[in-house]
Amino acid sequence: MSTTRNSGFPRIGARRELKQALETCWRGESSAEDLQRTARELRHRHWQLQADAGIDIVPCNDFSLYDQMLDTAFLFDAIPDDYRALADRDPLAGYFALARGHQKDGVDLRALEMTKWFDTNYHYLVPELHAAQQFRLRGDKPLAEFLEAKAAGHHAQPVLLGPVSFLWLSKSVDGSDRLELLDRLLPVYAELLSRLHQAGADWVQVDEPCLVLDADPRLQAAWQHAYAVLAQQPRPKLLLASYFGSVGDNLDLVSGLPVEGLHLDLVRGVDQLDALLQRWPRGRVLSAGLIDGRNIWRANLDHALVLARYAQGHVGAENLWLAPSCSLLHVPVDADDETALDAELRGWLAFAKQKLEELRLLGDALLNQPHADAALARARERHEARRRSQRVHRPEVAELQASLTAEWSQRPAPYETRRARQQERLQLPAFPTTTIGSFPQTHEVRQARARHRAGKLSDGDYQAYLASEIERCVRVQEELDIDVLVHGEFERNDMVEYFGEQLEGFAFTRQGWVQSYGSRCVKPPIIFGDVWRPTPMTVAWTRYAQSLTTRPMKGMLTGPVTVLQWSFVRDDQSRADTCRQISLALREEVRDLEAAGIAVIQIDEPALREGLPLRRAEWASYLDWAVECFRITAGVAGEGTQIHTHMCYSEFNDIIEAVAAMDADVISIETSRSRMELLDAFVRFRYPYQIGPGVYDIHSPRLPDSAEMRGLLDKASEVLAVEQIWVNPDCGLKTRGWAETTAALREMVEAAKAMRLVHA
């Protein structure tokens, strides 16, 4: 007996079918019924794909139209009062209003806050709770999808976010203790589990990802209480699931909870296996997460097989389930689609489909199936070929890294000296306005890029088109009276992929899409070898844009930590070493931009906090090399060159010292959804540099007016010095349309000018 299971499958589809269905529905070009039909087709296709791969237990309720945290909040009626009338009248419209905001028929609703899901590049919507919160079942999504799978011939395992992690990852809007709501929430969970039990579900996967965080007595008490209560109710067997690392100090807790099974991440948390096996009660199921659900390299199956056999020797074959380390949400669907990659490199890759095939092979090897030895030998050969490949290692990169000294990460003058020199050069007003970088990537822009890639638009014609779009963007910004301009990034397909395409050591896929949030998908580059820069990457277009205007033009770069975090990264050396290679390549770009006369250079690092280890004891080591890499990139800039950085959807309270240590002259951050709450960290620390707190949310189609933006700036000016404050959107404008962009920026500039009058 050898049981394989999966924790979750990518929901967007191999060709981003869900994205297309969502966006046509939002534009009114298709109906809600059309959207639900596409969603149903994707679920059925994915269940069948997993079954065809030989997976014994497939998940259900892992699918979402937008986000699993939003699904959970909606399911349990944790809906802010302002949205309730819309949600009652039109549940789907209410659901999307929470995700994207809503401005129609006199109803004006902002979107919920959004932040990163642990240390991934997936964003989740943060439910809003309060002390008087009540819960009830709204709809029956988990039950309906279980019955849908059952009718299609799949005895699926429903996936639920656990009650404690749901509360902990939510937000209290009145300062109350979220965990105090647990006893109101548990009866609703019990009711749902009872319904699933009656429908024939024998197991339910209950995700408690917060188990991998530092041990917290309040959380531990909440878990003990929650699962003791649920143990008393008629319900299916529960598989408690943690992932993204080791449960650490929570190991004794999870070993003693009254659940029938436990899933552990044995890729990132292999160190926990021995201790768990010593404590795990006989007769309970262990789901061993042996295949990496976060990266795209083929597994070392020999190593995984050793762990599987070791675990099987302790818990017995009938109680060992083989699984990926976490949901496969974080990887693309099928590497077989990447026919443009050479065969050698493609042979190193495993997307969701291939990971399930690896899982089945592990199961067959445990059973000593005749074909398994030959398949394992082929896997071993691929693994060894990658390790030996000359395309991976470059001696000149190793030599450059070896020459690094501390001076490379130091600016030539302290901040106050730089600030005076930069103001003398730039002559900016109070509350200077700028944008984060990108302007609308319209259908026409994407079509021109696609035609050029396909050879249907000549190099010359494509360059002329880009030049015209850049000039249009510059003229719009001048007409709006923005102080520091950007060129719009029309030549860039993605803020990481664009750079990776011009750096050595990267490879690119055609269908390697993963979900970032909602309908927003990204196609991470693959860092397979040493990174270096053959030629300048951004200088020509930035120089051209600057030639069109007398106003300062920002050079726009993606920082080394973000390039690292938003790529699939090689696993044969430390992430710190790979990041240093990227920083050295970007350093040369900063040098060339400055030589071209660019006075403002933005080095975006939205992923700095995202890379933070989940265990606090590991933070210092990560922050040391992450900050060092940013400083290596920026350290070559002269004192008159203003270095900006941008971070979005991050909590800064606990890493504010590291943010300051980056020594950037200006930082822009997301603050509109949180209503400037993020500024508290910068106040307590007395952050010495300049700050651009975002005054409107670009991830929502909702358009705030200048009075609303000025209200946010008033809040900012209460806690920051006037000379510190910049005025900008939360993030880049790539996903917005031109009409809404110009309307919102006009309101933003008006708000900035009003602030100048007040503070003159």
Structure, described:
With 760 residues, the protein is an alpha/beta fold. The protein has 2 domains: 47-79 and 109-388, TIM Barrel, CATH 3.20.20; 414-758, TIM Barrel, CATH 3.20.20. It has 28 helices and 24 strands. Strands 1-14-13-12-11-10-8-2 form an 8-stranded parallel beta sheet. β12 (261-265), α11 (273-279) and β13 (285-291) form a beta-alpha-beta unit. α1 (17-26) packs antiparallel against α2 (32-52) and α8 runs parallel beside α9 (217-231). The protein is globular. The chain starts with a strand and ends with a helix.
The name CATH uses for the topology of the largest domain is TIM Barrel
Structural Rg: 26 Å
What does the largest sheet look like? 8 strands, parallel
Q: What is the CATH domain class of the largest domain?
A: Alpha Beta
> What is the percentage of strand-forming residues?
5-15%
Mean pLDDT: 95
Structural class: alpha/beta
What's the shape? globular
Q: Which architecture of the largest domain does the CATH hierarchy give at level 2? A: Alpha-Beta Barrel
Major sheet: arrangement of strands: 1-14-13-12-11-10-8-2
Ends: how far apart? 77 Å
How many domains comprise the coordinates? Answer: 2
Portion in helices: 40-55%
- Poorly predicted runs are none
The overall strand count is: 24
Q: Report the total helices.
A: 28
Which helices and strands occur, and which strands form pairs?
Elements (H helix, E strand, L loop, with lengths): L2 E2 L12 H10 L5 H21 L6 E2 L7 H8 L5 H9 L1 H10 L1 E3 L2 E3 L4 E3 L6 E3 L2 E2 L11 H11 L5 E5 L1 H7 L1 E2 L9 H18 L3 E5 L9 H15 L5 E5 L9 H6 L4 E5 L7 H7 L5 E7 L9 H15 L4 E5 L18 H4 L5 H15 L5 H17 L6 H8 L12 H12 L16 H11 L5 H22 L16 H4 L3 E4 L6 E4 L2 E3 L3 E7 L6 H9 L6 E5 L1 H6 L2 E2 L5 H21 L4 E5 L14 H16 L7 E6 L8 H6 L4 E4 L9 H6 L5 E4 L12 H14 L18 H21 L2
Parallel strand pairs: 1-14, 2-8, 7-9, 8-10, 10-11, 11-12, 12-13, 13-14, 18-20, 19-21, 21-22, 22-23, 23-24
Antiparallel strand pairs: 3-4, 5-6, 15-18, 16-17
Helix pairs in contact: 1-2, 4-5, 6-8, 8-9, 12-14, 14-15, 18-19, 23-24, 27-28
